[in-house]
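so my prof wants the structure for this chain in the C-alpha cells format not the other one, which i didnt know existed until like an hour ago. anyway here's the sequence
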Amino acid sequence: MCHGELGKGDGPAAAAMVGGVPSLEGKIKEEDFDALIKVILEGRGRMPAFSETMERPDSRRILVYLRDRMDGKPAPSTVDKPEAPEKEEGEGPAQ
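here's what i got, hopefully its the right format
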C-alpha cells in the first residue's frame, strides 16, 4: 500500500504520508534480507510492524517478488490448475 507494486514509493497510501514514502529501488539485496525482514515484522521509523498479520516466510516472499520486479523479471503467473478432461459423448455418472 505504501511502497507500491514495484517498490517505487508510489503505492495508493503514499500520497497520505507526510514526506512521501521512500523508493526501495536498489535497496533489496539477498544479503540484506534478514535485516529487511526484521524491519517488515518489527517496523522502524514510520514503517509499521506487520508481525501480527504476517510471518517471516511471507516477508521473504515479498522481498523476492520486489527484487525480481525491480530486476525486470516478470511476475510469476498464478498457479496453473489442471483443466478437467473433456467428457466424451456417453460418459457421465452411472444412473
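also thought this was worth mentioning. The CA atoms of residues 6 and 70 lie 6 Å apart.
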